[in-house]
Amino acid sequence: MREFKDRNEWALILGGSSGLGLATAKKLAQHGLNICIVHRNPRLQQEAITREFEFIKQNGIQFKSFNCDAFKPEKRAEVINEFKLLLRDTDKIKTLVHSVAKGNLKPMVSDQNIELKNDDFALTIQAMGISLYDWFKSLFDANLFSKDARIISFTSEGNSKAWQNYAAVSAAKVTLEAITRNIALEFALHGIKANCIQAGVTDTASLRLIPGSDEIINRSEKRNPNKRLTTPEDVANVVYLLIKDEASWITGSIIPVDGGEHLS
Amino acid sequence: MREFKDRNEWALILGGSSGLGLATAKKLAQHGLNICIVHRNPRLQQEAITREFEFIKQNGIQFKSFNCDAFKPEKRAEVINEFKLLLRDTDKIKTLVHSVAKGNLKPMVSDQNIELKNDDFALTIQAMGISLYDWFKSLFDANLFSKDARIISFTSEGNSKAWQNYAAVSAAKVTLEAITRNIALEFALHGIKANCIQAGVTDTASLRLIPGSDEIINRSEKRNPNKRLTTPEDVANVVYLLIKDEASWITGSIIPVDGGEHLS
Amino acid sequence: MREFKDRNEWALILGGSSGLGLATAKKLAQHGLNICIVHRNPRLQQEAITREFEFIKQNGIQFKSFNCDAFKPEKRAEVINEFKLLLRDTDKIKTLVHSVAKGNLKPMVSDQNIELKNDDFALTIQAMGISLYDWFKSLFDANLFSKDARIISFTSEGNSKAWQNYAAVSAAKVTLEAITRNIALEFALHGIKANCIQAGVTDTASLRLIPGSDEIINRSEKRNPNKRLTTPEDVANVVYLLIKDEASWITGSIIPVDGGEHLS
Amino acid sequence: MREFKDRNEWALILGGSSGLGLATAKKLAQHGLNICIVHRNPRLQQEAITREFEFIKQNGIQFKSFNCDAFKPEKRAEVINEFKLLLRDTDKIKTLVHSVAKGNLKPMVSDQNIELKNDDFALTIQAMGISLYDWFKSLFDANLFSKDARIISFTSEGNSKAWQNYAAVSAAKVTLEAITRNIALEFALHGIKANCIQAGVTDTASLRLIPGSDEIINRSEKRNPNKRLTTPEDVANVVYLLIKDEASWITGSIIPVDGGEHLS
User: Fold this and answer.
1) In a domain, D2, yes or no
2) What is the mean pLDDT of chain A?
3) Contact residues on chain B for D260, CB-CB shorter than 8 A
4) Confidence bin at A121 (pLDDT 50/70/90)
5) Structural domain for C245, as ranges
6) Residues whose CB is less than 8 angstroms from the CB of residue C165 and which lie 6 or more positions away in sequence, other chains included
7) Domains: count for chain B
8) What is the mean pLDDT of chain D?
């Protein structure tokens, strides 16, 4: 059951203080992975987050968190340096999980609302897309990955559909997928496997920020063949499957985890 | 480790005497699933197959095999009836694995070889495609599936590519996928999850039957980012992942298991 | 405007007496193609159909129709033989258009309705899928295609989605697409181009046969970015584009013609 | 033949001085569209380009070119202002064609070469991706599009494949496609249709900049079912088809124009 215990392996989770990232941290800790969470939260939320982190620690694993702006290169360097100091000799990163939701949701054309601009694309693609490469490459260059490491990030059906207000996030998601494919190709012989999970509509804080999220939730419940939304735990479960030894031949793929939502 | 032990669950594997099917039987038996294999082999091969089956039985699980023509409705009915007699009260089928390779490989146009005809399509689609539905539906109607069952079949990149001589198999594979999607949709509320594994080029007896298989093997080794072919064990590993509890939200999907071969 | 006039080229349209096929016949006749329609209609509908055909003939083109069961090999042979007798020396087929809707719509599981069976798959795949190959190959073997011929058939979003009752048609559509890809590959050097048009939901007699078609129509009108259904003329327009000289480098493709319906 | 003559419609072509853009300008001018080309070339190339532009003008259409850095917002504003002054009362833009190739090709990991960095992604995505939105939106806000306008850009198989050194361009291409889908959705009721052409490997100056382009060319010639590369004229032909009235129901799509190259 606790198959990763005593293997000196870590999961580094970007955006691990809520939603898919937090659920992933919990699941992986249960299976014995040490957890490092990089997140960005205001002081007001710190107490609730600390409780979650304490819960994770009860699995008897190593735990470390960084509350900072993970998108700044110098912050990233600081975090990685500090993280390295924590590691014992044989410690390595088994999985980098990218669960970053920080996008600008605006209409391309509107009489009433602010319209989508170049910057909205650029910032969203940086935060939700290219940041995967930045973190992956920095950790790789620091020689921190295990010999059979797994890079996992989260995409959505917005990779092939068009939704009102969602253009910048859609572009970020497909960028994330393109980066994942090239990591899978170019680092295959370094033992890296990289995949995206295409999660169904999940009732998270990020979803609630989308204008009209109530309607999205309502429609998804009806549309999903299993007649419920995706939960963060559904997705965390598959992250766990993807880091198991048996998943080592899956790479460069986009795996729907949505109870069949993409079928309808 | 042996998580399916004592859960009174079976894997029914169509085409389980070689290739992906046999590797799957071995993997699932290791994890405690009881195994029922339906296969079709001439007497000449029986000895070698028996040795494989003995090996599987050493896992201390229930084992049953049927050597017959699984495509005939009356044979199917016989097998299912006989299988039912084996089952103890609470025994159920956890997974139906469809690993049937019986297709006609012919060119559409040729001066020298026999050309592809209507019958080649019809027979290949029946054997490699619709047979999934026939078996699934008969087992479902006999109330043999567990409350959380997994239907798994094998497809290939031929689902979106066109290869010389491969038209009938290609049509069978996409039919298999279409059936998988509709099973996922229509039986979701019956607890059924259905997925296809898109295996990379695997060096099996079936592959060796394809004219020009040497060149396919050679090209795939070069093309694969991991510089080797897919093995039956690579695929069996993912069948195992897909029947675990954690995979219950994956349904209606096509999952590449190919070391990234589809990327190039 | 009448670019195909005096080029001695024919369009042979399977299923040309209604819906997409009839609209295609009208459009292509306007541009000077001679028209041969193969259809299957009861005597009751003949009068209305004759009016449509008279309308087509007013374009001053050659016209021929066959009312018969196009799926029987011997009927196909008869039609082709009779058609050949019509042709002048230099006459060739520019385009074969496959617009056949003859599928069995049944649920996979139901307490009240007849459930989908093997035969439903087999018959639907034959009628809506493999028949493309049968006709194409017979016409090719009879040396009837022009040096730059276009094979066009109609698919739907059911090629990647799962809809209740639609499994057999879905399987037929993906079979049609697989056949199209292999024709594109294997006959490329014979000058053949083959493509599928993925039409949006179109209000035709075929659609009205689907249980729940009212709801489909209603939902499609809302969902379509252009807020209306696809018309047969929308699709016929693109058939016309695909037979123009400028489309000669498009082959093996699936082209959505749906006003963006697939985006949402 | 010259169907756009006297319709007071323009094609605005970004990157129209070479490759796909120039071929498009020539094709559309032949059919009577007025041409505005925005390009960026050093003085050394100006003479050759001028000859090409003179050739285009011989079609008796309006012609204007701007040699400037089209990616700078202030330059874009200048160009648009100057272009507006050219227009007669009823002149409108029928099509915006985005043919911009300005990407950074680097390996993600290398001992010898400079490795891909954040900036390479950011700049390439800006130049080859987001610039489509910037230009489209500026022209839309300036009310310059006709009531039935067509936005066309060029993508490649790199939208789903991973190629060595190509990660940044791949990300830019999928961004372009995501933007195209959202334009198709959000501007449908403004009469805008937006599509991408997925061109096969084309022997252009841009291709020659890719390390190993000889091998790409060699492999593509073999792999293509039609045994030749794609030409700029092949692609220009389909741009022409996509701006015709008959294409008005095609939107939000990616259309392969590659002689079937994507099939193999």
Assistant:
1) no
2) 96
3) 162
4) very high
5) 9-257
6) C105, C106, C107, C116, C210, C211
7) 1
8) 96
